[in-house]
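Inputs:
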Amino acid sequence: MTNRAPQIEKLVAEAGKRLLARADEAYGLTVQDISPRTNASLEKYLLKDAPDAPAQDIAEFLDQLQASDLCLVIACERGNAAAWSDLVERYSTTVRSAARSAAGNEDAAEDLAQSIWAELHGLRLREDGRPASKLAYYSGRGSLAGWLRAVVSQLAVDQHRKQARLVQTEDDAEFDRIAADGSEEKEAVGRPSSLPNPENALTNKLAGSEMEGALASAIQEMDDEDRLLVKLYYFDNLRLKEAGAVLGVHEATASRRLARVHTELRQRVEQILTKEHGWSIAETRTAFAEVALHLDTDLEPLLATKAITSENLSPD
Amino acid sequence: MKQPEYNEIDSLLRSWAGRERSVSGNSSDGRAGAHLDADELNSYAEGALPPATRARYTPHLVECDECRKIVAQLAVAAGPVARELVAAKPEGRGWQKALAALFAPAVMKFALPALGLIVVGVLFFATRRGSDRAAIVATPNIEKEKLNAESVATPIGSPAYSDSTSSEPAKSDAQAKKTDTKSSAAAGNKEQGTLSAESSVFVAEKKPEEPEKDRTRTEEDEAKAKAGAPAPTATTQSAAGQPSNTARPASADAPPPPKAVVAAKETAGASAGGKVLADKNESKREAPRSVVVDGVDSSDAAKPKDDDRQKAKPLSAARANVDRRDQAEDTRSLAGRRFAKHNGVWVDSNYKSSMSTVQVSRGSEQYRALIADEPEINNIANQLKGEIFLVWKGRAYHIK
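Outputs:
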């Protein structure tokens, strides 16, 4: 690694020239101005995971950096007024819309946007006397607009978390009650006579627990991208198109991948149930069918029952 | 996966997710490790990370609801950009792979011979079709021609149905020729009616008993090609020199001329060949067995092209065509040929009026000899009852 340093330095310098040439506006920056930033990006996103990456990969990586965005950000950091003007002009809309979607109301959105601009300008001074702007964390790997949206989202989450801690106890109790009411109402409206008889419910519950245990194991064994897809689709309730956007694939690809995941999971669950729990093939198939049949009728009422019980036990 | 199985595992996953949500609360603390920073989240969402780096972040996103939520929002917001970034690379590789696969030796080993066969097949087909084109193109004009024939029909000054498209009006100073086809098993047709030096349509009725008459139509192209072939034997000049400048198809509404159609000596052979064309309309109003002889003038009315042609081949220009009296009564495909039935006569689609035709009677010695050499002809003849005009290996046969 050490002996590669000069080679990498040279690659960074050459890429820096190309980057300045690629940028719409270089704001008078030099290769020396941008090299530390591009080098940091290289370390963070390429060399950390692939320390022996060949020179060609390094050059390609550097050439894929967002030249215009990176020059704008670096120029802003260096106090270039024109760059700041451009930044505000081009991205105030982005920041405002991101804040609006992250915050609950217009006032909160405005506060959030102001906070972001303050962060970007830098609330504290660094050792060299320049403001410690959040812009220093922009690597140029993704777009500046996307980065700003991410910053807004994170800040919103942080603020929400802080506020949440203050009222957590009361909120939790209230939330449980609302959730229980919701489930109860859903059950009453949608399936008035669907309560299973206790024996079947118990059987199904046991079967369900073993099956769900097997399913959880099977999911854990999958590779990360597949697990991410399952989470996005089932846990976050995203549509395939949205899940595909996260995975960087087309909706159709996401759909095919999900179908494969289904097949693999089913096979693995059956395998776990037969080998580890001694089920017969017929039993696993029956159990699958019952789960599908009773999912809407059994599991949610069971969960609701659990919530109702806890509510009834509470002093209220 | 079959649909029921899909539904079952789908249901199970939904159940699991619901339970996970209810128990996990905030899963982002602790087990998932450090959160991703804004730059990492955005780079991930935009698909801008090298694969190894992306793989490092994915487990956290699986576990951390907050980071995953932000990435999902960013990815959806930057959807087109992200897709562009991601799609460009793999698809490029895909193209290269696809191209490489296409030209892989293993593929080429089979593809080249197959391609060669296809090319040969197409060429062969094109050649055959090319020779049929005139006939095919002519077909749509049958109606026109019929109309034409009706309007002009009898006055005889007759249109020259030179090939499909150029039935130019024939001026009636032309000498019309009445041709009579003579039955000649030897297919030796002599052409006589060349006096006017112009092509003429003749006619023919093949069977005296038939109520409808057949007419033969001149196809000049083919006539030209067959210039050297023996011409129909008997041609009778008709008096028909009547002006028939109404000979264009459009003149259907022209007052029908006298029905006088030159009677023709019909021959059972209709050996002059030509398409057998049945014309119901004509049959309605014309006497049976009448023969129309169309004298075609080489006058200025004809297209220059036709003129040239006619001048070049004055003698051969006259060719008998069996006029179509009717639309095909039936069509059959046998041995790669199409046969259309007109007036009870099966006519090969490849058959042209200009072909010299060998007349063969079923059961004759000649017929037996023929089917001994070409058994397939017997199959065709057995399946198509009655008279057949058949083109076989470049020769035309009239099987009776």
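Remarks. The radius of gyration of chain B is 38 Å. Confidence is low (pLDDT under 50) at residues 26-30, 81-93, 142-147, 149-326 of chain B.
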